[in-house]
Amino acid sequence: MANKSSGVSGSKQSGSKAGAAKPAAKSAATQSAKPANNVRHVVPDKKAGDWKVNEPKKTTPTAAASTQKKAEVLAKQQVKMAGGGEVRIHGRDGKIRNSDTVKPGNESKTKDKKH
After folding, report:
1. Strand (E) positions, 1-115?
2. Spatial contact of 39 and 56, defined as CB atoms under 8 Å apart
């Protein structure tokens, strides 16, 4: 009879261990989702005639460059320093023409043929 009661208490302990493991799983999910928030947009500045690096929901640009390529490099450096994420490159018309993942961001399983 003593064995049966220890078996029951053992299952209660494993139940509490399973409950303790769930927050750790949420923590891992939060960590993998964090780089998705690191986004920079490379956009043309029609008034100044140069290119700006913008962070979503920020009013001032984080960087500026004379060419789109230089602005793209600056944006990728910023995202890399922030832990990875996405750089979205806009054309002169303002539409997104390309997007690139900076590791360790959430890279698509589809082969990137542009980079």
Report:
1. 39-45, 50-54, 63-65, 85-90, 96-102
2. yes
